[in-house]
Amino acid sequence: MAAPMRIRQPRNFRDRKDVLNELSDAELIKRYRLDRAGIMLVTDLVRERITNQTERSRAVTPEMKVLVTLRYLATGKMQLCSGDDLGPSQQTVSRVITETLFALSRNEILSQYFKFPVTLENCHTKAVDFQQIAGFPGVIGTIDGTHVRITAPKEFEAEYVNRKRYHSINVQVVFDAIYRILDIVARWPGSVHDARILRESSLNQVVFGRGMVPDGYHLLGDSGYPCKKWLLTPYLRPQPGPQSDYNRAHKKTRNVVERGIGQLKRRFHVLHGEIRVTPTAKVCQIIKVCAMLHNICKDRNIRIPAPEDIDEPAEDIEEDYDNAPLAVQQPPLPAVAPRPREGLLYRDEFVNLHFE
Fold first, then answer.
1. Closest by alpha carbon to 218, among 206, 232, 204?
2. Is 179 helix (H, G, I), strand (E, B) or coil?
C-alpha cells in the first residue's frame, strides 16, 4: 500500500503594523524614543548594511529592523518587540537586533556623534556653557564611571563582579553642560577601577596626553580620579575660604555627569536592569549604541518621556548607585596609585587664581 502524499501547509505570516505611518510622533517617541524623522535618520545610517539581499516579499525591511532594535533598547525586553504588533517572530527579533546593533556600533557611525572638543573655538563654547552653572571656569566636560548590570559571563566571571557584588561593565562617560555625551568607553569589567579606565583611555593617552586640547581647559572628576593639569578633582579636606568655594562650585558643576547618566538610563531602560545577552562584546555594543542614540535625541531636542507616559513594565528598573548624592558616595578603592604632585600643585594655583 502506497504511503499517503504529504500536503505542504502554507506558512502563516503575522500582519506587520505600519507604525511609522499609523502612529504620531508623540507615540513613536513614547515607544521608540525617536520621532519619525529620527527613526528614518538612524535607518539611513545603516540601510545598506541591513538590507536583505533577497526578493522575498516578507523580508524584514531596514525600517522594521531599526524599529525592533529601538523598541528593545527602550524597554530591555525582547518579548515586547515580537508582541508589539510589529510582526516578526521571537527568533527573528533576536537575529534582527544582533544585526542592527552590529551595524550601528561601527566606528564610522559612532564617530559622527561623539566629538570631543579640541579646537579653541569649541573648547571656549563648552567652557561658557559650564561656567553659567556655578562660575567654574575652563571646564569642557565632566567625567565619571557608571556600572551596567549584566548576566554572569562564562569566561573570566570573577573580573566582572563589582564592589556592589554584582556582574557589570564599568562604563566611562564624559558629558558636556547640555547633557550631550562627548566620549564613552564601554569595554572594562566591573571590577576595574575608574582611575585605571581613564589611564588606559585615549583621553589620557592621546587627546590630553598629546596636547590636542588647548591649555587652560579641563575635565572635572570625583575624588576617585587622580588630579591632573587637565582633570580637576575636589579637595578631600578643604580649608575654609577658596578651597571650600572651589569644592562647592566643583560639586555643582560636576553634577552634570550624574544627571546625564540618569537621563541616558531613563531614556533607554535596557541600561537600567540586567542586560541578558552574551557575549559581553554585544553588551558593549548596546551601551555605545544607546549613547549614540541619546546624542541624536539631544540633537533633535527630543525629551525623555515622562514616567506615566512610558508604556513598558518597570519591574527591572533599579536605582543606579553611581547617581547617589556626592555626600554618600563610597570612597575610592585603596589600590589606586598615589596622585602625582604636579596635578595637586596645579590645582592649588588654579584655586588661588580663580577662587580667592
1. 232
2. coil
